[in-house]
Automatic annotation (TrEMBL):
SUPFAM superfamilies: Actin-like ATPase domain, YrdC/RibB. Pfam families: Carbam_trans_C (PF16861), Carbam_trans_N (PF02543). This is Carbamoyltransferase C-terminal domain-containing protein. Gene3D superfamilies: 3.30.420.40, Carbamoyltransferase, C-terminal domain. It comes from the Bacteria. Residues 2-70, 114-324 form the Carbamoyltransferase domain. InterPro entries: ATPase_NBD (IPR043129), Carbam_trans_C (IPR031730), Carbam_trans_C_sf (IPR038152), Carbtransf_dom (IPR003696), DHBP_synth_RibB-like_a/b_dom (IPR017945), NodU/CmcH_Carbamoyltrnsfr (IPR051338). Belongs to the NodU/CmcH family. It comes from Actinoallomurus liliacearum. Residues 373-542 form the Carbamoyltransferase C-terminal domain.
Amino acid sequence: MRVLGINAVFHDPAAALVVDGRVVAAAEEERFSRRKHGKRPVPFSAWEQPVEAARWCLRQAGLTPGQVDLVGYSYDPSLVLPPEEMGIDDAWDHLRTTYAKEAPGFLADALPGLDRDKVRFVPHHVAHAASGGLAVSTAEPRSVLVCDGRGERASHLAGRYDGGRLDVLAGQRLPHSLGLMYEALTAHLGFLRSSDEYKVMALASYGKPRFLDQLRAAVRATDDGGFVTERIDWAELAPRRRSDEDWTGAHADLAASVQRRLEEVLLDLARWLHERTGDRILTMAGGTALNCVANTVLHREGPFEEVWVQPAAGDAGTALGAALHVAATEGEPLEPMPGADLGRGFTDQEIERALRTARLPYERPADLAEAVAEALADDGVVAWFQGRAEYGPRALGHRSLLAHPGRKANLERLNDVKGREQFRPVAPMVLLERAPEIFARGPIPSPYMLFVHDVAPQWQDRIPAVVHVDGTARVQTVDPAGEPLVASLLTAFERRTGLPVLVNTSLNTAGRPMVDDIKDVLECFGATPIDLLAIGPFVVRRP
């Protein structure tokens, strides 16, 4: 069975394809359109479909739209309530439902040959849940926790998967939403809501949670598996910041307070869920699951032995979840998600042809890992473009910007290269076998960079570029069995420097999506002070 998954209504439009129970492709529309997050999450944009992502997924599998058996669409308009009942203060919110109802026709027009009657509406939070509970590599029963801004009428789902069937145990109706609360704080702090929440998480490490008592009164779990988020007057706690203003201690303290309260409520929700399931494994999805600090608190202090987070936990992941849900509903046996590298890749011939067309001098070293390790050991900044692109917001060694972690100045240097705020951290990638001696109090392996770890005291001065202000790092572990080229690079770098760690941040500049195809990376290389481009088996050096 061939099932296409589509996410389109809010933000991060994406497509995914599941064939005979196997995930063969998944990609976000932003990587094709070069518009960050694909579009803004306003009602007027809900008609836009991830057409280029869907076309690519089908081409990747050698299929035409007419060969698709079913389509899962990650929003069910029949579940929507009137805006006033959901506490939604937006006179145009009804457009989402109007456009969603017409989505089968939109898709059939954009993908000629697709039968509009094959489109199945999948509830938004069910799609999120499936992206975790049906993608994890285990057959044992597993709990699932979804938290985000909003779906049709809710902002949260707690449930359990046993085989391919989801048992929903709790959900939280709007207007109460942990995700919308965090989005509102993001806007108050001068960042772009529904986009820059990760900046608030980074800023929180610079503050103290001195507003926690007020937040505990307004935001709290309930005894039915849900929660309450009362209206908060943010200006009473810290002044509103304009985007062009410097942040202050009050802003950092407010971020720290909301971050801590989010962690506490998520812990309450996880404990309630575990009391009812007794499961060993918790799977997570929804935009809140991209909060790697909160994920680590759940891992350390929560009742579950293992926490697995979908690497495309935001709305992009609902495309995959919708496809998996529809396939499971049809009785299709499912294979686990094979990894996050589900996007576009290019042959050596395609890459070399593009380099020649661009008239760039390039070479093909006998050992790519050794050549790149030499440049990194010499403190060069390297654009690393290898294999298939990642699905989700994390660069995991396929579309990455790499640097020497032992040079503290490289944090400021990379933030300058990318045009980012200087309070933002960069992350380490580390050989799996070496990770336990360097990084503590976080899950290992951690292949998707979705948890933070404490950096061992004896290593903090050795890899200062990747140590955040609170002594933590958002780690990606590299298993040679799954990522042999990246593992070889790390090994070659350690041989030269004694450090089995590299700085790994996403290959993009501020406000732009991660590079995805060859043209993107050549433009990025040409416009930024990157010293070396490693693209396929070739290297291009800065003159």
